[in-house]
Each structure stands twice: as C-alpha cells, then as structure tokens.
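Hi R.,

Here's the chain you asked about this morning:
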Amino acid sequence: MSEIIHPDDLELYEKHMIEDFPHKKPGNFQYRIITRDGKEKWIEHVCKPVFDEEGHYIGKRGSNRDITHTKKIQEALKASESHYRSLVENSLVGVFQTNTRGEILFANQALADILEYDNPDELKSISSIRLHKYPEKRDLIIKRLKKDSKIDQMELEVLSKCGKELNLIMAASINNDIISGMLIDVTQRKILEENLKEAEHRYRMVGQLISDFAYSCVQDEKDNYAVDWITDSFYNITGFSEDELRLNRCWMFTVHPDDEEIAQQQLSELKHGMYNIRTFRIIDSRGKVRWLRNYIRCVEDSQLGKLRIYGAAQDITQQRNYLDELRHELEINQSLSRIYPVLISESSTLSDIAFVVFEEAKKLTGSEKGYVSTIDPDNLDMVVHTHTAMMDECQIGEDVDKIRFPCDDNGSYPALWGYSLNKLQAFYTNSPANHPAAKGTPEGHIVLEKFLSVPVIMGEELVGQIALANPGKDYSKNDLEAVKRLAEFYALAIQRIRYKKKILDSLNEKELLLREIHHRVKNNLQIIVSLLNLQSHETMEQQAKEFCRVSQDRVRTMALVHEKLYHSHKLSNISIQDYIKSLAEGLFQTYVTQPGSITMDMDVDDVSLNLDTAIPLGLIINELLTNSLKYAFPNRKTGKIFIKCKSENDKYILTIADDGVGLPQEIEPEKTDTLGLKLVYSLVNQINGSMEIKRTRGTKFVIKFSELQYKNRI
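And here is the predicted structure, written out as tokens:
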C-alpha cells in the first residue's frame, strides 16, 4: 500500500495507521495517492476500533473515500475567497460590516482612506454613529433596512476624522442585525454637479440677456444671398413674420438706410474661407432702431456648387445705448466739473457764472444759439446775462449790458421763449414754427430751426432760464436732461449769490447802525463833559471844581473809546497804540501848563482790544497818568512819565511810571481812601488783572491782565 502513497503524505499515513491507531480511538485523515496512470487523487480514510462481546480489542474497521472532486471544490473556494478578500482589501470602494448598535465589525483600507483614518483598525475603534453628520438619520436607515432587507442606493452625509463633510453613496443589506454594504465617495462629483448647475444657471441667464440669431444663406444665380434657415430669435428681435422674410428672401431688408452700404460691403468682400464682422443698425417692425454685430463665415457648398454663408447676428442695442449714456453722463460730469470752480469762487459774479453755464450747455447739445438769464425778483423781468446774436439789430433797450424782457400784467411771459417759464417745465421742439406757443419772430431775427428751454427753479420760485437753439441735429431727451442738470447747478449759484448779497447788505446795515450808536454815545458823553464844565464854572468851591474836572477826564476817556470805534474799520476792536497815545496827549494838554517841562516816553505794541477791555483799561491809564501829572513833580520844572504796554502770549503788561517824588511811605495803596486808587483797583479786578507798585526812583505801576471774552448779554 505504501508504494501508491504520495511521497509528501507517506509520513502522515504511517503516523495515523501505525502510531495513532493503537490508542483504540476513532479517527480520520486525508492523504494523497498516485494512480497507475500517474494522476493524483485525494483519499479520506475513516476508521474505528472493533471490540468483542467482552470488550476486548480485536481489530479495526475502516473505509477509504475518494474526495478528489470535493478537494478541488474546496481549493477553488479558498482561492475565490482569497481573491475576494484581495478585491475587498484593494478596492477603491469602501466596504464595511457593522451591527445595529453601531459597532464596526469590518472595514477595508479604502473606507479608512475615504474617511481619513490611518487604517481599518483605527476606524473600527469608533462607533459608526459618530460618522453620521445627522445621527438621527441612521435610525431611519435601519428601519428601512429591516423593512426592505436592503437598500440599493442612498446618499449619505458623513464626517471624516478631520470633520470634513463628505457625500457618500451607500448600498447595504441586513441579516440578523448585521449590516453589510459598500460606500462610494461622490464628494467631488457633488461639487462638480453644483458647479455645473451654477454654470448652467449662469449660461441660462446670459442666454436670456443676450439677443442674437443664427442663420445660413445660399448664393443664387444672380449672386444674391437668400436665407436657407434662420433661428426663431430673429422674429423675436425684429418683430417680422416668416412670410415677410420669405417675401424678401434675405433678412437684409431690415438694415437701416444709412447703414446699407456697410451691410452690402460685408457681403461683397466674402470669398470661400473668409470670415468678417460688421456692426450696423436695423429697423424692426415697430420702427425702432436696433444695433447688430454681424459675424459671418463663407464656405463653398459642395452639393450646390455655390457659396454659403453661416452667420450669427448679435443684438447689441443695450450695449450701444449704455455706452452712449455713459459717454453722455461723462460729458455732463466734465461740464459740471468745469462749472464748479466758477460757482464757488467768491469773486465770481452772476454774469460770470451765466457765461460758463451757457458755454457748457452749447457744448453738450451742439447748439449754435441761445441765452442764459435770471429773473429779477423785484419786477419779474427776465434779465439776459449772456447770449448769442439773435438778430441784426435788437430794438429792446439794454441796462448795464443786460437785455431785459418784462412779463405782462398777469406775470406771464410771451411767445415760445416764455412757454417753459409759464409752465415751469423744461421742453424742446424740433419744429418750433408748429409749436402751440409759437408767435413768430421779429423781423431780422434768426430762423429758429430747433428750440430747447429749461426754467431754472429754486424751490418753487422761478429764478432764471437756459434757452438754446439750432443744434444742427434734432434735440433729444438726453439733451434736455443734460441742460436740466446744468440748471440745477445754476439755481444753486443764483441762490448763493442772493444769500451773499443779503448777508452783505445786512452786515453793512448793522455796521452803519453800530457806527451811528458809537457816534451818538460819544456825543452824549461829550454833552456830559460840557455839563460838568458848566457846573464847574457855577461853583466857587475849589474842591467841587476839581471834582468836575476829574469827572470830565473820566467821561472823556470813555468817549474817546467810542470815537476810536466810530472811526475804526473793525467796530468790535480798537487800536491800543492809537487810543493810549490820544488819551495821554489829551491829559498832557490839560495838566501840563508849560510845554516841554514834563515829557512822555511811550512804548506801546500795535495790538487791538475789544470794548469790554479797552474802556476799563483807558480809565486805569487816565487815573494813574492824571495822578502822576498832578502830584509827581510838585517843586520841579521838568520830569518824565513812562507808558509801556506789551503783549506776551495771551497776556498784556501795562507799565505807567514817573521819575517824580514817589508815593509817601506812610501811604498803603491797598487801604487808601482816595477815589482814584480805589477806582484803579476795582478796574484791575474787572479785567481779571493784578497790579504791582514799585517806589524806587519815583513810582511805577505794573498791571498784568488778559483781554476779556465777549459775553452775550441776552
């Protein structure tokens, strides 16, 4: 028997048959034999021990079964399983097995890669519930699986390890709470689909916005082109019917008469293989002008032996209109920018502004004639500030180079030029003679071929007019709107100049009134001085006379301030240099009987102070200077008085000194009962100042103060 045993299985055979069997246990094993014809067969040996009635082992009983076919089936199955496992492990499709509790029982590397995990084991360590973007949807999936046992295709939204949102397609089945299935990553496809939808939407929108039509024409025996086919958009664009196109044979019958040469030239230049583009106008069935950009290519039709044109005509009317409007808006803005500097200049007169507005209006509209005017608010006359020659000799009188056109008793203006003023509406007419308001023109007046008029309105008040004529073309709505824009700026200029005139008139009136007040105050104070002078002559008491004299000086000091303000260019401030000089000279004339005996050294900055500061300052100077003139030089024929007023930053320093006998040591100025020094201290406090007295080599008063700020008394 051993000679037919496969050499590789001989050891196994002997082990089981000789060594293992004495153990007297049932057994089986498989081995191979070599048949006579050299073929290999698999044998399964099954045996068991045999015992007598007393239980003694007497031998064995066995059988051999040819299992070659079964073995081949098992090996094929094993190979298939290996191949399947290899497919699963190396597949680009994610394969998984999980239970209803969410435990991941199996996952291939592809699924780990899709979900951005390092390997399947890492993926199996988490619950599949965590992978769902919307975990509550997993319960619905399980219910559907339990109901239908499988799902052929379902889209899932899951989260990767990094939290990235993924779109997956799942196919799955369930068996005893075990869910098996496959997952395909369609995230990129989803993005592409969304992009495609967006692109389709954009193209659809573009298609709705772009109006064009395609066509084909064939050359006939007379070398004319007839339409072979044309898209329906031609009828939508032009409004013509198929019958009208068939009657004319070619759509070129729609071309604008002024552009026929362009369209014919495009066709006449064509030869086989040529391509060209032309832009021209057509007129649709409603008479509306449209712009087309016509693309054509010429080929030779091999079947007909004739030239064929393939073309596409694009409706660019909106583009042309937009460009025209943009160009027109740019021209208007440029005009306004040229007007603006003149409008805001303080030196510009109304005539200057009218001239610039008129020139820009003519440029924008191409007009040759016209005028720009204002309405006189006092009598409603239309006053022309600038104009072109409208007739050889104008019989209307001129007022300071300005022509005036009066309104009638009802406040209306006659003829065509008055129409927009009466209606307060801008208008134009390209047939002035046929306009309802036309009354003809005077003899020698230019012929009005076209006319445009815009009233200039400020609020609800008519303040002027811009009138134009004869542009060499028809006026349009664009022309009217452009001039209306200019009129808005012109109205602002008129308003500014009117306000400026009112303000100047008001200021002049107030200045005149203020000068008159200062003049009258000065006169009234002079009357008081005269009354005090008369009073001093009525009394024989020397003390009373002295009182009147001192009071005169004080009143005269205040009167001098109003006199200086009356003559000043600026009524709110006076020059301190001039004021102190006049005040000192007046006091010297009063108290110095021998000219030259007492001299004055003055050093005063040329600064200005307001009325609230100047009056108390003048009274202080009056008191101190009078005191020096009266008491500093009792037994001397000569002496010197110093007056200095200097500005330092926001402060002022007034110094009044003399080289006289000085104040007696027993006198304390702060506690003196004399009216003069009491008044000085009070006035120093009034101007928020301080005073220092020095008694070396005469007497020196140093007063530091600031200019008082004006306070509203009302």
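One quick note: The chain has a mean pLDDT of 83.

Cheers,
M.
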